[in-house]
Amino acid sequence: MTKKVYKNGMKFSNGPPIQAGGYDKWDWCKPCESIWKKPTIRCGNCRQRTRASSKNKFGTDTKNGITRTMREKARVEVLKDLVEWQKNDRKL
Known about the structure:
By secondary structure, this protein is α+β, with helices and mostly antiparallel strands. It contains two helices and two strands, in the order αββα. A hairpin with a 4-residue loop joins strand 1 (26-29) and strand 2.
């Protein structure tokens, strides 16, 4: 069985493969879907910034780090507070 050799500029549509070492050894350029050995700041093909870590690194794929259920729960609480405030405002 031959071992696959990974090189700079190889194309992978979903980031660097785990078998190649993933984001520990490689940076990934999303626009041109190529991988580059760390520490590469800019892609050698399109000169865009490379991604140095997985989006899933922090457990969620949202920018502010909260899940959908947490957002929905907070939204319901805000709406309840708004209704309560409107009721109190009408009494005055």
